[in-house]
Queue: 3 jobs
Job 1
Amino acid sequence: MATTLKTPENSAETDAADQPAEVRFRMRIMKGETIAIGPGKVSLLEAVRKHGSISAAARSLDMSYRRAWLLIDEINRSLKSPATISEQGGQSGGGCVLTPVGESIVKLYRDVEAQAQNACADQIESLTQLLKP
Amino acid sequence: MATTLKTPENSAETDAADQPAEVRFRMRIMKGETIAIGPGKVSLLEAVRKHGSISAAARSLDMSYRRAWLLIDEINRSLKSPATISEQGGQSGGGCVLTPVGESIVKLYRDVEAQAQNACADQIESLTQLLKP
C-alpha cells in the first residue's frame, strides 16, 4: 500500500509533485470548545518528555514559552490528575517531566492513530486508488 | 460511553462547561503539501450533493463561491476521474452533481471516521476516563 502514517519521525516535507499519498489521522477529544486532548497537546507532551522542560519543548516546536505553558496548564486543568510535574527553578527555569498519566496519554493517543489506520486500511486503499498517481 | 462522533448532524456548539467529551476523528490524505482528501473537501462534496450547485453549497458552508470553486477544482484535478459534473449555465449559474466517484469518496470517508472510532473505542474510553467529568 502506498500510504504511510504521518509521525514525527517521517514528517519531513518535500514538494515533489509525484510523491506517494500520505495518510494523517488526527483525533481530538473536545470538552465544549476546548480540545482537551489533540495532536498539538500530545506533541507538546512528547517534546516535554524529550527535552525535560517546557521552555526547551517550546523551542523545539517553534512555539512561544507562554503558549506552551498555557497549553500545559490547560491540559492539566482538564485532567483528574496532572500530566506533568514542574520541578523547582521558577516559572521559566525549572524542569518539567511527564507523570504516569502524561505517559499514558501519549501512548494511548499514538496507539489510536496507528490502530485507526490499520482498521481502515481497506477504505484508505480504495480512496488512494481514486487519486492520480 | 460518554463520547459521540462529531458529524454535521450533531455538531451544534454549546459552551456548557460540563458537557460530555466529544470525539472527532479527521483523516487527511496528503499529496505533497495538498490535502487531496480531507474533512473540508468531503463536507463540500456533501453540500454540493445536498444543494445541487457549487454556489448554494458555498453559501451553506459560509464559504465564498470562489473558494468553493477552487476546492472543487483541486479535488477533481487530484483524481483519476472527477468527483463532480457541472451542468450548463455559466461559471456561477449552473448546477453541479456528484459523480459515482464523488459519491464513493463521501461514503468511504465517512465510513473511515466511524470505523476508526469503533476500532479505538477502548483507548478513547481510557483517555476520556482521565478527564475531569
Job 2
Amino acid sequence: MPLVPPLPASLPTAVAPALPAVIGFADLAGIAVFALSGALVAARMRQTLVTMCFFAVITGVGGGSVRDLLIGAPVFWVHDRWVALVCLGMAVVCWITPHRWWRGAALEWADAVGLGAYAVLGTTKALAYGIPPVPAFIMGVITGCVGGVIRDCVAGRPSIIMRPELYVTAAALAAALCSAGQALHLPKGWVWAVSALAGFALRAAAIRWKLA
Amino acid sequence: MPLVPPLPASLPTAVAPALPAVIGFADLAGIAVFALSGALVAARMRQTLVTMCFFAVITGVGGGSVRDLLIGAPVFWVHDRWVALVCLGMAVVCWITPHRWWRGAALEWADAVGLGAYAVLGTTKALAYGIPPVPAFIMGVITGCVGGVIRDCVAGRPSIIMRPELYVTAAALAAALCSAGQALHLPKGWVWAVSALAGFALRAAAIRWKLA
Amino acid sequence: MPLVPPLPASLPTAVAPALPAVIGFADLAGIAVFALSGALVAARMRQTLVTMCFFAVITGVGGGSVRDLLIGAPVFWVHDRWVALVCLGMAVVCWITPHRWWRGAALEWADAVGLGAYAVLGTTKALAYGIPPVPAFIMGVITGCVGGVIRDCVAGRPSIIMRPELYVTAAALAAALCSAGQALHLPKGWVWAVSALAGFALRAAAIRWKLA
C-alpha cells in the first residue's frame, strides 16, 4: 500500500532516549498496576475475560493517551508491541488468580506508587515537548488520574476523584513539584525522585489515615 | 486567511484507495446504523430532535474518531461532506417514523452487522497505518464499541459493554481474526469476509440465545 | 534534549491573527465562565480545592480541546500560559467566595453568553481550517456543549444536554447561523454578532420561560 504515508519513525521514541531507563520500567509497571485495577473493576461486576481486557486497556493507557493527544505526541502505546500486551496480560492474571489475592490493600498501595510515578512522568514528557510549566503540571495530573476516571465513567461507578480520600491531590502534588523543580533548573534526578516520593507519601497517608 | 496552514490534502483519503469500494459503502452503512441507535436512545428519553442529532453524531462517529486520533490519522468524517449529514439524516428518520418501527429486533440485528464490519474496518485501517498487530486488534475493538460506550455514558445508562450478552467479545473475535489473518499474509478479501462474518455470527448467537 | 522534535511554532497562533481581538477576549471570558460552572459542581459536592481545579479545567477547556483534536489543530490551551491559569484561578475564586454569590441565576446567564460566543468561535475556527460547513457546524456545537457533558459525566450527574430546557439547541442555532452565513460569504462581523446573539437569546428564553 504505497499510498499510506510513512510514519515519522523518529517521533514515538523521541523523548525516551532523554529519560533514564528506570523511568521506562516504572512506566510499564505503572501501566500494569492501572490495568490490573481496571480488570478488577470488571471482575467484581462478574464480567467476561474480554470485558476485563477492555477495562484493563482503557484504564492502563487512558491517562497517557489523553496526555499524548493534548501535547501533540504520537500516542505512546499505539506503535509499541508491549504496552497493549502487558494490559491484556494483567486481565488474564486477574482472571486466573483467586479474587482474595486482590481484596486487601496491596493493590491500593501499588496504585499509590503508580500515581506518583505517572504524574512525574507525564509532567516531564510535557515539558520535554516544550509545554509551559502550568499546562505541563496539568498534563501530569491527567496522566495520573484520567485512566481511573474513564474506568469509573464506563463502569458507571462514582468517579475515583469524587471519593472522600485524597487522590487527585497526591497526583497534583507530584506534578507541581516536578514542574516547579524543572522550571527552576534543579537537578532532574532529584526533582523526579522527590516529587514522585511526595506524591506517593501523600496518597499513602490518605489511605492509611483516611485523609480527606 | 493566508495564515491558516494548508491542510495535507492527500492524508484524509490516503487509506481509502487501498481498500475496495464495498468497504466504503459498508462504512457508511455501519455509521448509519450506529447513528440510528444513538438517536433512538435520545428518542426513548423524550429528547428534542436536536438532542437526537447530537446522540446520532457521537454514536455514529465516536468509535472511528477515537481510533483515528490514536493512530494519528486525520479524523475520517471531519473533512467529509457526507458522514455528518448521514448521521443527522438518521436522527431525522428516527424522528419522523413511528417508534414501533424500531421496537423489535431489527435494529439489534443491523447493529450486529455493523459491529462485525466496523471491527474489521478499524483493524485494517490501523494495520494500513503501520500499527503492530496487537494494538491494531485493539483499534478494531475500539472502532466497533466506543461509539456505543460514549452514547451510554452521556445518556447515563449502563454501558453496552457491561450488559450480560456478549457484545465486546463479538467485536474482539472479528478484530482478532482480521489482525491475525493479515499478519499471516492470508488473502485479504477472505480475511475480511471471514472475520466480519464470525463477529456477526457470534453477536447474532448472543442475541438469539442470550449468550453471556 | 536535542532529540525532542521542535514544535511547529507558527501553528498554535495560526488562526488567531485572522480573528479580531475581541474574539480572543470573548474566548477567555467564555472559558472562565465554563471553568466556574465546573468548579461549582465540585463545590456543591463538597470536594477539595484540588478537585474543584480539576473540574474547572476539564469543563473550561474540554469542548475546545475535543474540537481542536478533531480538526487537527494544536490544542489551544496547551501551549498557552494563560488559559490553564484562568481555569485554576476560577476554582480559587469559587473556593474563597461565599456560595450564595453563585446560587442565583447570574451564573446561568453568564453561561448563556459563553454558549453562544463559544459555538460561533468553534464553527469559525473549523471553517478557517478548511472543514466543510456541516462538520464545521458540528464543531461549533461540540465547542459549546462538550465541556459541560464531560463535567457531568465525571461528576455522575444527569448530563446537561438531557435536561428539559433547551441547551444544545441554542448552541446548534448559533453554530448553524454562523456556518451558513460564512458559506454564503456574508460579512463576517455581522454573521458572528447575529449568530452569537441568536444563540444567547434562545438560551435566555429557555432559562426565562423554561422552554423545552
Job 3
Amino acid sequence: MSAEQVVRVGVLGAGVVGSQVVRLLTEQADELAARVGARLELVGVAVRRPNRHADIPAELLTTDAAALVAREDVDVIVEVIGGIEPTKDLLLTALRRGAGVVTANKALLAEHGPELYATADAVGTDLYFEAAVAGAIPLIRPLRESLAGDRITRILGIVNGTTNYILSAMTADGMGYDEALAEATRLGYAEADPTADVDGFDAAAKAAILASIGFHTRVGAADVYREGISAVSASDVAAAARLGSVIKLLAICERTTATGPDGGPVESVSARVHPVMVPRSHPLAVVDGAYNAVYVEAEAAGRLMFYGPGAGGAPTASAVLGDLVAVARNRVAGGRGPRESAYAALPVQPMGEVLSRYHIDLDVADRAGVLAAVAGAFAEAGVSISTVRQEGRDDDASLVVVTHGAPDAALAGTVASLADLESVRQVTSVMRVMG
Amino acid sequence: MSAEQVVRVGVLGAGVVGSQVVRLLTEQADELAARVGARLELVGVAVRRPNRHADIPAELLTTDAAALVAREDVDVIVEVIGGIEPTKDLLLTALRRGAGVVTANKALLAEHGPELYATADAVGTDLYFEAAVAGAIPLIRPLRESLAGDRITRILGIVNGTTNYILSAMTADGMGYDEALAEATRLGYAEADPTADVDGFDAAAKAAILASIGFHTRVGAADVYREGISAVSASDVAAAARLGSVIKLLAICERTTATGPDGGPVESVSARVHPVMVPRSHPLAVVDGAYNAVYVEAEAAGRLMFYGPGAGGAPTASAVLGDLVAVARNRVAGGRGPRESAYAALPVQPMGEVLSRYHIDLDVADRAGVLAAVAGAFAEAGVSISTVRQEGRDDDASLVVVTHGAPDAALAGTVASLADLESVRQVTSVMRVMG
C-alpha cells in the first residue's frame, strides 16, 4: 500500500448508529487501513444540530448534507439517517458522480432499490447494505455471495427486535400485549411511536430485501403481505403453549413451484410478515428478546441459521464498517461488489393463494351437532382439518381446530363463515401455524 | 453479458463433493450464467478411475490432473481431492499461471496457506475456500468480509460433524465412546479410519484457518493445541449432566490482552481443540448430531452464531459453487477477492499459558482432612477453586472440584499432584469447562 493512498468518507447522520461509525472509524483507524490497503479519512459528518455532537471534531460537522454528497473528493458516502426523502436524492447524487454508497436504510431499499442499483450500475460504483437487515448479522453477503451457487427455497426471519422482545415477554411472563409494549418502551426497545415495528412495516421492508436477493427477483415493500402483532393476545400465547409452540413475528419468503396450464412447472415467490405459531423444537423458537435470527433453506446447502443482535448502535455500525471496508478495497484494488440480480423476475404470489395452516379457537355451544356444523364449514371451503380438540363443557365449551395447508383466502373465508354459524358464539383466536 | 463470454472450469476430484459440484454446474448452468454474467463451462474433471464415473461425460474425464491444472484455457480450478501432496503442487501450478482456485482443503490451507496466498498475490489471482470450514455454512466470507470493520475477540466452533455425532449419541443415549463410534461408523458419519476426526486433527486445521482470518495473524496447524474425544467416558458425560452441561469438542480461538513488562497492553492469540463442558443454556449446547455451528464474539457486533450442515456432498458443493461464482464474477467484471490479511502478526500463546477452568472428579477416602489436603494442592499451585462438592460416603466418597480460570499448565500440574495425594484414590475425570 502506498503511504499516500486515502479513501475519503462522508457520513450522513450521527445518531445511535452514526456516532458509533464515527467512533470506530477513529479508534480502529490503523487496523482499518491495514485491511483496506489505504487509510479511511473521515471528511464530513452531516447532522441536523451540530451543537449536539461534542464527541465529533467541529470542523467535520456540517448541516449541509447535499453539499457533502456532492463533494467530488468524497469517495464513499455512509448513510445512517433513514427515511425516504431527502435521503433518496442524496444517495442518487452521490452514486451519479461515482461515489460508493453504504446504507442501513431498509425502507429506502425496499421501495427504491432498483432505482438505486440502476444508478450505481450506470456509473459502475458500489451499493452495499448489510446493515439494512438484521443489524450485525452477516446476512446480505452470505445470501448474495456465499449462496450464489445454490437455489434458495425459503427464508424465515425474526428480523424485528422490538416485536420479538414484546412477544418474548408475553410468552415468558404471561403479560398482555399492552403491558409488554409499555415495558419495551420503558426499556428503550420500542420507540415512542412504535407503529413501524409493531405493525410490521419494518419487518416487511426487510422481507422485501431478503426475497429480492434470495430469489433474484424484484420484490418491493408493496408486494409484502403484512400483519403486525397488536392483535396478539395473552390467550393466543396460551393457545400456542398448549400446542407446544411460541408465537413469533416472522418474515417469510418462499419460492413455490406449481403446475402450469400446460403441465409444466410454474415458479413464483411470496413474501409476507405475520405472527406464526412456531414449534418449540424449531431453532427460531428459542431466539428471544431483542435478538434476530434468519433461517435459510437452500436446495444444496440444506438448512442454515444466522443469529445475533439485530439492532443497536455498535452492532449496526459493525455491519456498516464491514461494507465500508469492502467498498474501499474495491476502490483501491479495482473491482466491483455484486450488482442487482433480478434476472429470474418470478411473479409474486398474492397472499390469498399462499398456502397457510391455521390454528382456530372457537367458543361454541356444547350441544350435539356443533362439530358437524363446524366441520361442514371447512369442508365447504375445501379446507382439510389436521386436528380438532374439544375443551370444557356447557358454557365453557371450545373447539380448537388446526388445519392442513390451504390457500390463505380459503382459510380466511372459512373463518368468516364459522363466525356466522349459530352454534359458534365467538371465534376467539386465529393464528397461522408453521409448516 | 456478451453471448460468447465463458469462464472455463476444471475440477480436481469427483468423489462425494466433486460429483455434486459437477451435477450442480450442469443442472443450474443457466442460473449460474445469469449470476456470473458469463457461462461456466466445465472443461475437465480429474479422477483416478474414469470408469467409476458414469454420470460424467467421458470426454471430460482425465486421469492427468497435472495436465488439467496446466491448461492455459482453464480459468478456474476447483479442488476437492484433499491431501497435501500432490494437491499443493497442482494448486501452485494453477495459481502461478493466473488461474483462480477454489478449494475445500482445510489441511492444505492450515499447513501451507501463506505459500498459496503469496503465489495467488504474486500474479493477482483469487484463492477462495469457504468449503474448507463448516461445509455449507457461510463463515469464511462473513469473517473476512462482513466483520472486516470489527475486532473479533473469540471464535468457538463445533466444526467436526463426526465427533459431534458421537458426543451427541453419548449424551442422548448414555452410550460409551466405543459404542457411539461404532454406530457413527455404521451410519457413515465416521470413516473406517476415524483418526483425523476423533483425534481432533480435522478440527485443529479448521481452528488454524479461523484464527488466521479472525485475528489477521498467521496461525498454522502446528500452533493449535489438540486433544480429541477418545478419552471422553460415559462418566464424564454424566458428570457434565450433573453440572447442567454437555460435552462438546470445540475449536476455540481467542485474542487476549495482558499487561506487558512496560505496563502497556500485550496482545496474543490462541487456538485449541479439546472437549469442553458447555452449559445447556449456551447456543452451542443444542447443536446436535452432524450439524456444525460457529459462535463469534466481536467488539462492536456482539455475539453471532452461524449454524448448518457441516459436511456432506451437496452442502459442501454449495459452498464451492458460491466461491466459484465469486471467482468467475471477478474474472468477468475485474477485481479481486480478499487477499491474506496477516498484518497483525500477533504471537501465539502456548497452551500452558492459556486460561482454563477445570472440572475434576476425585475418588477419595472419606476421612477428616481429605478436603484440606485437596484444597492445599490447589493453593500450592495458585489455582483458585470455584466450587467443591462432596458426594457419597465411605468407599464411594468423591469430591467434585470446579476451578476458576488459571493457566492450563498450573491446572495440569495440580491434577498431577492430586493423583499423588495419599487420600486421593483416583482422579476419575478431568475436563475443561467453558467460561
